[in-house]
TrEMBL record:
The keyword Repeat applies. It is an enzyme of class 2 (transferase). Keywords: Repeat, Riboflavin biosynthesis, Transferase. It comes from Streptomyces gilvosporeus. This is Riboflavin synthase. Its EC number is 2.5.1.9.
Length: 211
C-alpha cells in the first residue's frame, strides 16, 4: 500500500522486450537504499516487484496486462519516473490510500500556469469519470492529488511548486498519457450498492415463487 507521496524522481535506464512482457531497469538511489528482491516499488503509480538491485538501480518485470492498462509501455531509456516505496506500518498517511493498481490512463488536455502554481486539465474515460468527485482524491502518475473540478470526461488538479519540481507532472506536456488510479473506496461502494440491489431482486423473486 502506498500514499501517493513521491519520494524520488527516478530514471529509466533500459527496457528489455521479452515478448509477452518487459524487464525495466530503473535508477533510484533513495528507493533502493533498503530495497531487496521481492519488495514493491511504485513506478509512475504502478506497483512493481523488485527483481534485483545494484548501485542505486533496480530491475522489475512488467507483464502484458500492466503494459496494456498503464502508460509504462511508452517509457524508454532516459524517461523520468515517479518512485515511491510502500508505506511502513505505523507511518504517516501523507496522501491517501493508494494500491498501485492502475485503473487506466488519461491524457493531459491543458495546462494553465499561474504565478506560483498550475491548473492541469486531464481527459479520462467515462468508465473512470464516475469515480471522480470534486475535492476527492485521485492518483495521477503515482501522485496523490485533490480534484478541483470533475466533469463527465475530464477533471482538473492544481499543482504546487513542489509537485511541479519533484515529479513528472512538472514536465508532462499536453497530449502526454498519465496513469490514473481512482479512490478504491468509490469502487467498493459501487460494488456493494450493486450487490445490494441484486440481493433485493433475488429476495423478491423468492417471495413471489412462494405465493
Amino acid at each position: 500500500m502506498f500514499t501517493g507521496i513521491v519520494e524520488e524522481l527516478g530514471e529509466v535506464v533500459a527496457v528489455e522486450d521479452l515478448g509477452d512482457s518487459s524487464r525495466f531497469s530503473l535508477r533510484g538511489p533513495v528507493v533502493t537504499a533498503d530495497a531487496k528482491h521481492g519488495d514493491s516499488i511504485a513506478v509512475n503509480g504502478v506497483c512493481l516487484t523488485v527483481v534485483d538491485t545494484a548501485d542505486g538501480e533496480f530491475t522489475a518485470d512488467v507483464m502484458a496486462e500492466t503494459l496494456d492498462r498503464s502508460s509504462l509501455g511508452a517509457l524508454s531509456a532516459g524517461s523520468r519516473v515517479n518512485l515511491e516505496r510502500p508505506m511502513a506500518l505505523g507511518g504517516r498517511l501523507g496522501g491517501h490510500l493508494v494500491q498501485g493498481h492502475v485503473d487506466g490512463t488519461g491524457t493531459i488536455a491543458a495546462r494553465t500556469p499561474a504565478e506560483h502554481w498550475e491548473l492541469v486539465r486531464i481527459a479520462l474515460p467515462a468508465a473512470l469519470a464516475r469515480y471522480v468527485v470534486e475535492k476527492g482524491s485521485i492518483t495521477v502518475d503515482g501522485v496523490s492529488l485533490t480534484v478541483v473540478e470533475a466533469g463527465d470526461d475530464y477533471f482538473t488538479i492544481s499543482l504546487i511548486p513542489t509537485t511541479l519540481a519533484l515529479t513528472t507532472l512538472g514536465i508532462k506536456q499536453v497530449g502526454d498519457p498519465v496513469n490514473l488510479e481512482v479512490d478504491i473506496l468509490a469502487k467498493y461502494v459501487e460494488r456493494l450498492l450493486g450487490r445490494g440491489t441484486e440481493d433485493v431482486k433475488d429476495l423478491e423473486e423468492v417471495v413471489e415463487m412462494d405465493r
